[in-house]
Amino acid sequence: MTRLKVTAAQMVDAARARINEVETPDLIAMIDAPDVVIVDLRDIRERQRSGYIPGSFHAPRGMIEFWIDPESPYFKPVFGEDKAFVFYCASGWRSAITTATLLDMGFEAAHLREGFSTWEKHGGPVEFPEKKD
Questions:
Q1: Which label site among 64, 69, 70, 99 has the fewest CB atoms less than 10 Å from its CB?
Q2: CATH superfamily placement of domain 10-122
Q3: For the segment 28-44, what is each residue's pLDDT rounded down to a tens digit?
């Protein structure tokens, strides 16, 4: 077995040491704020299975660097808006690493520290995609 120089857990810890983290109750309080964009990094199957934060923008983790870069052919205009961005995933690991990467690119953002895993437990609303026939 190959020994890694840095583990995924170490990457998450390093990211968390330098990014802005939002606690679940605080993001619940911001859900309707017009100057906040909540971004769901999870896979489409996770959203279908577990639901998502109402009004969140879905941006799959594999494309996010390209979607936030105005010089990329994949740029999404939502990321050019003058708003606060809070990213989330299931447990906060992917969103921590993503937020650190985007910070390195010069894009200011925060992430939901515990991820979607504690959202409902804290009373956060959940929406599900419409079932297709």
A1: 70
A2: Rhodanese-like domain (3.40.250.10)
A3: 999 999 999 999 999 99
